Amino acid sequence: MLQTTQDQTHFIDGQWHKGEGMLFHSIDPAKNKSVWQGNGASAAQVELALEAARKAFIDWSLSSFDSRLAIVKNFAALLEENKVELSHAIAKETGKPQWETATEVAAMIGKAGISERAYLERTGTVENPMPAGKAVLRHRPHGVVAVFGPYNFPGHLPNGHIIPALLAGNTIVFKPSDLTPLVAEMMVKLWHKAGLPDGVLNLVQGQVDTGKALASHPQIDGLFFTGSSNTGKLLHEQFAGSPGKILALEMGGNNPLIVTEVADTKAAIHDVIQSAYVTSGQRCTCARKLFVPSGPAGDKLIEDLIKAIKLIRVGHYDADEQPFMGAMISAKAASLMVSAQRQLLDLGATSLVTLEQQDTDTGFVTPGLIDVTAITATLPDEEHFGPLLKLIRYTDIDDAIALANDTKFGLSAGLLADAQSDYDYFLPRIRAGIVNWNRPITGASSAAPFGGIGESGNHRASAYYAADYCAYPVASVELEKVTLPGTLSPGLSLDIE
Ligand SMILES: NC(=O)C1=CN([C@@H]2O[C@H](COP(=O)(O)OP(=O)(O)OC[C@H]3O[C@@H](n4cnc5c(N)ncnc54)[C@H](O)[C@@H]3O)[C@@H](O)[C@H]2O)C=CC1
Ligand SMILES: O=C(O)CCC(=O)N[C@@H](CCC(=O)O)C(=O)O
């Protein structure tokens, strides 16, 4: 059922089509083997997908919430049935270890129930009595929306837009990352099997040209994007002058993690590693800057952190002894991390644990820790999307917080501190959409809003709040019969007979 062929690349109006655009393929970054190949969707095929979504919109949006929910539940049940196959495909296409991709599929399954609750709580129907009649709040779907997904969670993150969008009654054209087409194809096959009517969810695969054709098309009523800030900003520019279209951007971060005083240094080291190196540093929430106090306690923490980083197992996604870190998404992404490290060293940083690409044909890199204390004034405010953590030593917490906030991004931030008073000080001063205390800053909950400030997003938080951008409110005052009010406004008379 989940087999792939080159003739089944795009799913438009309930049918699989061969692509008419550029040939592209996805590569297993751990084994350097081709996983999937096909031709991207041409602009004409993108157009067909949008027409199909438009045609399907009326019936889908008028169907009952319960009937839409039933299909979402079928999909969740199919994910459960196919979880091993899907999690193995994610591992193969991204290099992430299978223990981790199993958690990705579990998050996808959990999204169904969470989105149902969010829909009812945030966008349900509310009635309030009025002196004459009642006030009713309802929500309507936007229409045809485009969903763009990133490669790092090729199942979970697009799914986090797709499920709430469908529950709200929108129809969709989905453009996944061109690095993970297999996972997208498998997901869409499961939706079809779940009973989604033709045209409600369409899949167009391809590279930037396909993305541009979709994002710039006048037929979309909205676009839900998870990906890099660079692409998100391009989309934002493209949407300028279209205030009637909804744009939800979930983008990158340059996230700080500050340590003050902690008794259990092993626990602190665990939380640092989980924040910086999980998914080989390829989470938007990953810690990029670690602030540790100057002095002997900080020195000891760093000494132990270095030892622990050197013990992190890096390896194949399917190894019997599972690694903590798999390969990065591509050999190119790995070599970009080596270059980023080189650039920081050239600026005057000191390597404490050197990130190394294990061979130039694969995405394997070892985790790195680099002391950038001497170059904070010239530190580039860039998201280095990989396992390279920058260390900054500080003496004054206000300086540390100021440096932590000295970024155009604002996605996640964390404090490791035993004193509640430290957190009380930190929380109102740090600028981020996710602020954690004594917990890793990765692994955000789908049951909470998920989004950042600055260039991390555009105030359209996802996860629990995705319901908000999937529907617009319609406020009505209603009275069953046209009725004359008891008192007329001054100056009005209806003595007309
Ligand atoms: N805030 C959040 O929720 C999350 C953000 N991210 C961010 O995503 C990035 C990694 O994902 P990537 O796949 O590299 O992102 P990306 O921006 O390269 O690609 C995202 C999607 O946009 C498409 N695309 C790329 N250029 C386009 C263009 N000019 N016009 C239209 N579509 C275009 C891609 O094909 C893909 O489907 C990181 O920056 C990470 O921080 C990742 C996960 C979660
Ligand atoms: O979208 C949700 O349901 C919750 C947010 C989430 O799962 N975040 C993950 C992955 C996102 C990323 O960082 O790429 C996390 O915070 O680890």
Automatic annotation (TrEMBL):
Q: Which EC class, in a word?
A: oxidoreductase
GO MF terms held by the record:
succinylglutamate-semialdehyde dehydrogenase activity
Pfam families per record? Aldedh (PF00171)
Per its UniProt record, what InterPro entries does this chain match? Ald_DH/histidinol_DH, Ald_DH_C, Ald_DH_CS_CYS, Ald_DH_CS_GLU, Ald_DH_N, Aldehyde_DH_dom, SuccinylGlu_semiald_DH_AstD
Query: Where do the coiled-coil regions begin and end?
Result: none
Q: Which UniProt keywords apply?
A: Arginine metabolism, NAD, Oxidoreductase
Catalytic reactions of this protein: N-succinyl-L-glutamate 5-semialdehyde + NAD(+) + H2O = N-succinyl-L-glutamate + NADH + 2 H(+)
Q: Which residues bind NAD(+)?
A: 227-232
Q: What does this protein do?
A: Catalyzes the NAD-dependent reduction of succinylglutamate semialdehyde into succinylglutamate.
By sequence similarity, the record places it as follows: Belongs to the aldehyde dehydrogenase family. AstD subfamily.
Name listed for the protein in its UniProt record: N-succinylglutamate 5-semialdehyde dehydrogenase
Organism for this UniProt entry: Glaciecola siphonariae
